[in-house]
Amino acid sequence: MTALDWSHVFATRSERMRASEIRELLKLLDQPDIISFAGGIPDPALFPVEAIRDAQHAILSDPKQAAQALQYSISEGYLPLRRWIADLMGKNGVPCTPDNILITCGSQQGLDFLAKMLLSPGDTALVEAPTYLGALQAFNCYEPRYDRLIPDGGNVTPAAYAAAAEKAGGRVKFAYVVPDFANPTGITLSVENREKLLDLATELAIPVIEDSAYQALRFEGEAVPSILSLDVARNGGDIEKTRTVFCGTFSKTLVPALRIGWIVAATPLIQKLVLTKQAGDLHSSTLNQMVMARLAETTYDANVARAIALYRTRRDALMAALAASMPKGVEWTKPEGGLFTWVTLPDGIDGAELLARAIAEERVAFVPGKAFFATDAMANTIRLNFSSPTVEDIGEGIARLGRLIARMTP
Amino acid sequence: MTALDWSHVFATRSERMRASEIRELLKLLDQPDIISFAGGIPDPALFPVEAIRDAQHAILSDPKQAAQALQYSISEGYLPLRRWIADLMGKNGVPCTPDNILITCGSQQGLDFLAKMLLSPGDTALVEAPTYLGALQAFNCYEPRYDRLIPDGGNVTPAAYAAAAEKAGGRVKFAYVVPDFANPTGITLSVENREKLLDLATELAIPVIEDSAYQALRFEGEAVPSILSLDVARNGGDIEKTRTVFCGTFSKTLVPALRIGWIVAATPLIQKLVLTKQAGDLHSSTLNQMVMARLAETTYDANVARAIALYRTRRDALMAALAASMPKGVEWTKPEGGLFTWVTLPDGIDGAELLARAIAEERVAFVPGKAFFATDAMANTIRLNFSSPTVEDIGEGIARLGRLIARMTP
User: Fold this and answer.
1) Do residue A271 and residue A152 come from a single domain?
2) A182 and A292 part of one domain
3) CA–CA distance, A355 with A358 (Å, rounded to integer)
4) Nearest partner of B244 among B198, B212, B287, judged by Cα
5) For residues A175 and A128, what is the distance between their CA atoms, to the nearest angstrom?
6) Is A163 within the bounds of a domain?
7) Which domain CATH number covers A375?
């Protein structure tokens, strides 16, 4: 028999699917003696295990609910859960109905579906530098060109973005942004810059994808209205006239592994997305959606409060440790929420080289910044996560890292 | 504000995403006085509700397992579940390891991922006429051309398939087949024709996608070896040399709404698919995978036996009712398993027209055959499902349908 040459049958898009060095690296970090700032995952101590167990038990003890929970279902998602999300959005300045909502398998699936619907090969996606690595992985499959989104305007005009896209053989199709306590920078976009972003999107006639994964986890300061809520306000309260696509998730507020996220947008987009969902995996787990609907009602607020309290303490510990232990020339962001801070190293120190030495010499891990750039990576950057390590480990780990950076600084 | 024209930003592929008339129709069929042969879903009486409840409870009562079940996880899937699947495949002539397996959200997601990896726009997918509607919906998003797969050879040579594909601006990328008790026809591909299909795929240097959704539900007769097992046998027992991609699912044997399916193939393909999964939705629900691993160990065999017993009775009832009630000129398949039979009506009776009248005049529903064809639909066909209606309803419903067809026959 002639063996099949798989590379001969792959689509061109599959060449963009490459293993992330970072994710490979993270697999190696299970050694217990390593202090890791590399993750981006919630602390499992926050998972509402009993509430989930009770919800499962209640649903599966009622024959009618059990039959519904385990059977095929509609692609849009479980209606009571979409109703709860519509209420939550309404409280945050986005009046909408369940018809404006699609349930997805985490917001990662939302990003994949949006790129699938919007990007033809060679089209341009506007993304920040740096931006969320998982978004780049989702978008890459649809062979886009990237251009750098500067939310506060900068000196790139809409016409210049459009001309560059056309020169590359496509059109600008969307702007993607993580506006609150961004992954990886921890930075929050001001209301003024959100308005400027909407102006830019309006001039370019494109949607804004608002990845709101961390919005609920604000430790201090005043909440900034979501881009979608500003868009709704511009349009007389009518979501049907908006251009913003809001991606939400329960992964950081309740639990990741039920894989429940959502998209909120005008119905013409949602209706197309429902077809994408139907073609993609029919529907999200009905049982998990029913459990999440119960958790949302009973434990969402308390769980968010607990997460905020825990992560604020760790953020404070990290800020104190950085101030105490980092040599001159190292800069970092001061996130008002979320899971991450972003560190800029002295010129000439490469984040990837630092990681190799940090693991070998100091048993400390983090993610080098390079992976978060679609183009023109800044090598002298790293991302530190503060949701997973304990306060004690934060102090010790940053002291070790500071010593190493001092040794490497010329 | 200028409202966004969404059609201006959709990718060309999104134009292929259309609402299926059938699925729209099925939504209307909740009226309790309709006898429906339209569904394609398992009987919820078969769901192992208690076993699922017990599994959830056990996992979530153990702190270590609970933390794992609810946390982010690897894209490949839960290792003990992949081990169980590897054992099952091994028992069925496919020696393999967990590295040959990716867990998907139902086999629908497997079909989407395979099309995503394999199809560039204009490439050719070989599909049977008729074939599974959900596969066409998944493939459509990647803008293929379709050519008719004739598994038993027919008179189309491999060179003719290749030439037609090249003329259309692409290449033949795969052959897709539901070999056992196919949806929609109920027909099983003979071992001889499976071998011919492998010969064809070898000459064309393409993979075969084997959608094995119904294989376990055989009521009678001898099991036909899977195409993958024949491919393994051709290659000295080495799955790494095979070209067949096996898509399996627990949706028909245990429960659909945990959304657990799997793909088995050579590792070069699985490794690419893992990246697709990572970019697509990170991973399937860990909790659901852990529950399914327990169900697989404890109730899989018993559940399959119960499903076979129940569906066999209904298949028998349907065959008897068709023989008793259908006028001359109506033909149907005699499935040895699965959920469906395929009815060919007298020339000139359109399945869609028949449905409209069947609902209005006889309160009976089914799916018109047209939707299952990628090209050149045969309008005088319908699909009847026998997994959902009771034996009593089958007799009554087919009697009504027979009367109506008799009235419509010239």
Assistant:
1) yes
2) yes
3) 5
4) B198
5) 9
6) yes
7) 3.90.1150.10
Cα dihedral B41, B47, B49, B55 sign: negative
pLDDT digits (tens, 9 = 90+) for A2-26: 789 888 899 988 887 876 666 666 6
Q: Which of A1, A2, A4 to probe by mutation at the B interface, max B CB count within 10 Å?
A: A4
DSSP H helices, B168-285, are 191-204, 227-234, 267-281
Residue B88: φ, ψ to 5°: -60, -45
Q: Looking at CA atoms only, how far is residue A360 from chain B in angstroms?
A: 25
Q: CA nearest B130: which of B369, B397, B384? A: B369
**Angstroms from B332 CA to nearest CA on chain A:** 27
Joined tokens for residue A180: 């609150």
Same domain, B125 and B40: no
Per-residue pLDDT of chain B (410 residues; tens, 9 = 90+): 578 988 889 998 888 787 666 666 666 666 778 999 998 899 999 999 999 999 999 999 999 999 999 999 999 999 999 999 999 999 999 999 999 999 999 999 999 999 999 999 999 999 999 999 999 999 999 999 999 999 777 889 999 999 999 999 999 999 999 999 999 999 999 999 999 999 999 999 999 999 999 999 999 999 999 999 999 999 999 999 999 999 999 999 999 999 999 999 999 999 999 999 999 999 999 999 999 999 999 999 999 999 999 999 999 999 999 999 999 999 999 999 999 999 999 999 999 999 999 999 999 999 999 999 999 899 999 999 999 999 999 999 999 999 999 999 87
DSSP state of A241: G
CATH number at residue A84: 3.40.640.10
Same domain, B108 and B25: no
- Distance between B140 CA and the closest CA of chain A, angstroms: 9
H or E element in which residue A276 lies: helix A267-281
> Which uninterrupted H or E stretch holds A139?
helix A133-140
3-class secondary structure, A51: helix
Q: Decide if B202 and A1 are in contact by the 8 Å CB cutoff.
A: yes
Residue B402 sits in the same domain as residue B271: no
Structural domain boundaries, residue A231: 50-299
Please report the pLDDT score of residue B21 as a whole number.
63
Listed residue (A233, A376, A294, A284) closest to A52, CA to CA: A294
Q: At what angle do helices B49-61 and B286-325 cross, to 10 degrees?
A: 180
Whether the full predicted model's pTM is greater than 0.90, yes or no, is: yes
Sign for the pseudo-dihedral over CA of B28, B33, B38, B41: positive
Q: What are the E-state strand segments in B115-171?
A: 124-127, 145-148
> Which of A281, A295, A339, A385 has the highest number of chain B CBs within 10 A, making it the mutation to test binding with B?
A281
- Token couple for B252: 């028909």
Considering the domain boundaries, does residue B61 fall inside one? no
B353-361's contacts with Cβ under 8 Å and 24+ in sequence apart are: B354/B382, B354/B404, B354/B405, B354/B408, B355/B25, B355/B382, B357/B404, B357/B408, B358/B400, B358/B401, B358/B404, B359/B34, B361/B404
Q: Which of B253, B280, B299 is the last residue of a domain?
A: B299
The answer as to whether A387 is a domain residue is yes
How many structural domains is chain A composed of? 2
Half-sphere exposure of B304 (CA within 13 A, CB side): 16
Q: How far apart are CA B216 and CA B227, in angstroms?
A: 14
Residue B55 lies in a domain: no
Q: Of B299, B334, B349, at which residue does a domain stop?
A: B299
Interface test with A, best of B65, B107, B259 (most A CBs within 10 A): B259
Short-list A182, A120, A116, CA closest to A149: A182
ipTM above 0.90, yes or no: yes
A23 and A159 inside one domain = no
Tell me whether residues B288 and A287 touch, CB distance under 8 A.
yes
Of A1, A251, A272, the CB nearest to B17: A272
Residues B252 and B331 in one domain: no
Looking at the structure, tell me whether residues B295 and B329 fall in a common domain. no
